[in-house]
Amino acid sequence: MKMKYDALNGFMQGILLNEDYFLKHGLLVYNIVNWLYAYLDANGHPLDSLTSTEIQASVKIVNSTFPFILQEGWRFSYITLKEPEKSLLLPSFLGATDTAIDSIPRKAFIVLLERTTNAVAEAVVNLNDKVVEEFSTLPQGTQAFYTGTDSHLAVQLVVNNAEIQKRCSEMGWPDMKNVVPLAWSVTYKDTPLQKNSSRPMQIYFFGQLFPGDNYYAHPFDFVALVDVATRRFLAIENLATHSDYNTTNRDGNICPKTHANYNPKFRDENFLRKDVKPIYFNQPDGPGFQLKGNEITWQKFNMRVGFNGREGLVIHHVSYNDSGVKRPLFYRMSLASLFVPYGDPRPPFQRKFPFDEDQFTLGYNAINQEKAGVCVGGKVAYLDAYLNSESGYPYRKPACICIYEEDAGILWSHLDVDGKVLHTRSQRLTISSFYNLGNYDYIASWRFYQDASVEFHTQLHGIISTQLLAEGVTNTGGFGMAVAPQINGQYHQHNFVVRVDTTIDGESNAVSTFDIIPVPEATGSKTNPYGQGFTSRVTPLRTPAEARTTTSPSTGRTWLIKNPQKVHPYTNRPVTWKLIPYVGPPLFVRKDSPLHPFCAFADYNVWVTKYQERQLFPSGFYNNGTGGLPEWVNATNNVDITQTDIVLWHVFGFTHLPRTEDYPLMPGEAASFFLKPVNFFLENPAMDVPPPKPAPAVISSTTK
């Protein structure tokens, strides 16, 4: 196999060196060669996502083993790779050359849903032996992921309902073809009617003046409830449209028909700016990364990428080549939860509490990034993945992973004594996925830098969820902002949880908080004579209970992830990386709220747990208001995590208080956190980055 790879590497290197040929045909050849890499690696890697053939095989094995699956109409809610136990792959990642990973069997994890009863079952299929190894039905009330089928069923239950048609007509939309119903989940069942429903959904309504019109500019004043399991229409509820809690006051509830379109083809002819000049990115020598199947090597970094229906993009086995020595850093990294609670307390707005990943998933809602044109770098590579329909049939998610390089500004610089500036520019490798969750679009990227820093960067785009204000009302009750006449943009929070399975120079890791504090003694004292002294405080987090910690802006708190078994030769301290958190407001859901159990994992910004198989999501696999991080920590309160295999969870987000500038389409918002080396290398690892080649000047300036 190595000889075949070497031959391909030589062929690809020849293409890259022939600049004229590369500019004409290089990208096509590059993609073909990448396909050949995957083909030659016939057995694949145990972490590679399921193929189309494997998805089909897993469905066939389940159906043949349990005939009732077909007979009773069970649906395949979720099919994904069951990743091998960490103990099987860790030795290979840590550098053991005698680890036989080719013999690890391929397995599929499957969630099944019986739609009429909302029963949920799980199966594990061994694809090598062609057997179902595990099968179990889950407790009643367990909710499988919501899918497009759920939204379709919910819409069908309302569009033909006479009461709904009457309310839409009252809003000025008598033709239901111009009404846009949008289905949301119901996280907490707060009424007997909802509690007696198996799979409730709520539907908000909007009008559309013509095909392509921005319907968020025309919100209605009511919401409907349905049960998509029993196919029942449940109720209509009025929404507050004045500044108080009164939902029966419908005075002035006239739906606005003012245009607020963001598509330029629906704006004035001269709407677009004429003075914007394009900026192009070019890599005449070809991409700086190498792609072999799902393995990426970029300069001194090496890693694998994966993709599944729930998390979307997953990064595996990140290591760094330190002067020829492979140093493991992170075993697995992923966006493990994303939820958006709204802050308007006036019922029934408390139900605007969607868990975008936990309930609707990221991977199934991934956008084709090549078609969208959102990856702008030099030479861009795209990877596809296969997911499943409810019938179990596999389908391709094209360009759901995007890989490219970017210029990232000045890497290091200094004005030397001879008056010359010595500097070099920073490059970064970006690996991203793009998800659409209703009115919002999210770009989630992992960025790798030449100084060995790793950044998780998320961008929020899209349209705010609008609500109707009665005519003449501008006071939203203090829970939103009138972003346009009769359009209320409600306050809400976007919360993210990123799971980082650390292997800093090995399996034995520990975490401490690191705070910068002033010297406590008074000015004039022997230890602080001029009163300007400050120092640092390191607090070891010895148990999962102690590790439940929050950000501290006043002390610049970071979290140190160290390997106590590896000591730096200069500092005589353990080699370390640090988490530099994203700092924002805390979760505003009160702990005595009935909604709190669903998001209790967001009470803290950092959790540290001892590694356990299947503990991948902070709410547990199914967010039923029980389980997840709080339960795991309570069960392991006093477990020692000072020298063991640990997982760090970072909870962060931003609070979105809409403004007029967020309408009709908001400019992007971003949030990031960093993982950086601290006394891990012998010197700045980016010192060997060469200075940039001088670029030809396009515009020269002269002083007259």
Account of the protein in words:
By secondary structure, the protein is α+β, with helices and mostly antiparallel strands. Helices cover 15% and strands 36% of the residues. It contains 11 helices and 29 strands. It has helices at residues 2-17, 19-40, 52-65, 68-71, 86-93, 148-159, 162-170, 192-195, 356-360, 369-372, 629-635; strands spanning 75-81, 107-114, 119-126, 131-137, 179-185, 200-207, 219-227, 232-238, 289-292, 295-298, 301-308, 312-322, 325-339, 381-388, 394-415, 421-437, 440-449, 454-462, 466-468, 480-484, 487-490, 492-502, 510-518, 534-540, 558-567, 574-580, 606-610, 646-656, 666-678. The strands form 5 sheets. Strands 14-15-16-17-18-29-26-25-23-24 form a 10-stranded antiparallel β-sheet. An 8-stranded antiparallel β-sheet has the order 9-10-11-12-13-22-28-27. The chain has a 4-stranded antiparallel β-sheet with strand order 1-2-3-4, with helices on one face. Strand 20 (480-484) and strand 21 (487-490) form a beta hairpin. Helix 1 runs antiparallel to helix 2. It starts with a helix and ends in a 26-residue tail after the last strand.
